[in-house]
Amino acid sequence: MTRSFRRYLKFTQGMAFEEFGKNKMVVQSVLYNFVIIGEASVNIPDEIQTLDPTIPWRNMSDMRNLAMKRLIEFKNKARS
């Protein structure tokens, strides 16, 4: 999870949102790393998750679902 988060930060460092939106490679990379983070969060046992209730575990898994949907849309659009 940490590695994916660091990649996300590295890919977008110093980038304005408008620039980010125009860079398809970066958008796809960030979405992919969101999927990885979300998938990893789902696989953390409940006993570990309860140790820190301030971490938004459910939001991370929801983020994965949204990121995966956007990746599929992105790939379908690229094929058209």
Work out the number of β strands: 0
Overall geometry comes to globular
User: Strand fraction band?
Assistant: under 5%
Q: What about the largest sheet?
A: none
Number of helical regions: 5
Radius of gyration: 14 Å
User: What's the domain count?
Assistant: 1
- In terms of quaternary structure, what is this? single chain
Structural class: mainly alpha
List the uncertain runs. none
N- to C-terminal distance: 33 Å
What does this structure look like?
With 80 residues, this protein is mainly alpha-helical. It has one domain. Helix content is 79%, strand content 0%. It contains five helices and no strands. Helix 1 packs antiparallel against helix 3 and helix 3 packs antiparallel against helix 5. The longest helix has 23 residues. The model has no long low-confidence stretch (mean pLDDT 87).
Write the layout of secondary structure elements.
Elements: H1 2-12, H2 17-22, H3 24-42, H4 46-49, H5 57-79
Helix pairs in contact: 1-3, 3-5
Structural features:
79% helix, 80 residues
Describe this structure in a few short sentences:
79% of the residues lie in helices and 0% in strands. The protein contains five helices and no strands.
